[in-house]
Amino acid sequence: MISVILNVYNGEKYIKRCVESVLAQTYQNFELLIIDDGSTDSTAEIIDSYPPSFVNVKVFHTENKGLSGSRRYGLSKVSGEYLIFIDCDDWVEPNWLESLISNLQKQNADLAICNYFEDYSGHSSHIEVCKREQISDYVSDLMHGRTWCVVWNKLVKTEIIRKNGIDFFEHLRYWEDVPFSVSYALYCNRIVFVQQPLYHYVKTNEESLTATDKHQISFNECRVKAVRMIEKHLKLSGNPQIYESDLLWLKFWIKNEFVIHIVSKERIRLWRNSFPEVNKDWKMFAGKFSFKYWALQHGWDWYLLVNGKYWQLRHKLKALLMNGK
After folding, report:
1. Alpha-carbon distance 313 to 309, whole Å?
2. Which contiguous run of DSSP H or E holds residue 69?
3. CA 233 centroid distance within chain
4. What pLDDT tens digit does each residue of the chain (325 aa) get?
5. What H or E segment, with its residue span, contains residue 31?
6. Count of Cβ atoms closer than 10 Å to residue 179 Cβ
């Protein structure tokens, strides 16, 4: 059996389409676990309206835990040998489950990944997942962002998750998919890629998390916590040295997000205190001498603040000149 975990918060506009697409699956040996994360709209009434005859639909109402906490709760309710997630504002093709599980079992794999659609207003784009033969190449792709760490196009084995303590960190508001996907891949022996697009990732929901707080400091602070979780499973899996350069790159990239667009005392402090073990390694990633990183490493905060003000003023003047034409 496959457990499909659907976490929803205030999804009254989308939830019915999502649920109906799961119920229409050609593969029917599944349970749909709907976790209502303390919705304040009519979501609860909609999901409670499914009749008892839908024996594979199980509804749970909880206080608001956030997406990571809600997914953690969903994992605790899983009965299936396999599991996968679906987001409430998305929907799936009828053969989503059948294609994933048949390919996984046929190849004796631990993980099945499918292509997907990005749905915009009026058109869709077919997104192809880069196929990798080696697990190490796939993990490297995840850590470098060459393959997206989303959980909704990945069918996984419940046994591997429970045996290795893979979970969602309840207080991680953003980037919760990344440590989960990377950590799971570390324990896989074989991965199978399904080239057919089976999932519809809807990009028109302006209220979703990915459409709002992406560039805030709190988002990047969650990235720092997420990488610490990855480090834990790198050690537990027994091969941390294979991914040493990938991990260094990821840490430096995340640090850089604190100061790349806006510079402030708080952002400088966060750069310096986040992954301090790589503060001196900026030359590995800058490619050439950078006075900015040298100043960060040596505590020349005044230079960074003045330089940041200069670029802010320059951009404002450029915008004024463009508007004046």
Report:
1. 6
2. helix 66-76
3. 17
4. 999 999 999 999 999 999 999 999 999 999 999 999 999 999 999 999 988 778 899 999 999 999 999 999 999 999 999 999 999 999 999 999 999 999 999 999 999 999 999 999 888 999 999 999 899 999 999 999 999 999 999 999 999 999 999 999 877 888 999 999 999 999 999 999 999 999 999 987 555 544 443 457 888 899 999 999 999 999 999 888 899 999 999 999 999 989 888 888 999 999 999 999 988 888 888 778 888 889 998 899 998 899 888 777 877 787 777 776 5
5. strand 30-37
6. 26
Give Cα separations from 216 to 211, 219, 267, 273 (angstroms).
12, 5, 11, 17
State the pairing for strand pair 111-120/154-157: antiparallel
Using the 8-state DSSP alphabet, how is residue 151 labeled? Answer: S
d(CA 41, CA 222): 28
> Whose structure tokens read 């490619």?
287
257, 220 Cβ separation under 8 angstroms: yes
Looking at 161-302, which runs of residues are DSSP E strands? 191-202
Q: Which residue has the tokens 């918060």?
A: 9
Which residues of 46-153 form beta strands (DSSP E)? 57-62, 82-87, 91-92, 111-120, 123-127
Report pTM. 0.89
Tell me how far apart the alpha carbons of residues 300 and 296 are, in angstroms, rounded to a whole number. 6
CB 135 within 8 A of CB 182: no
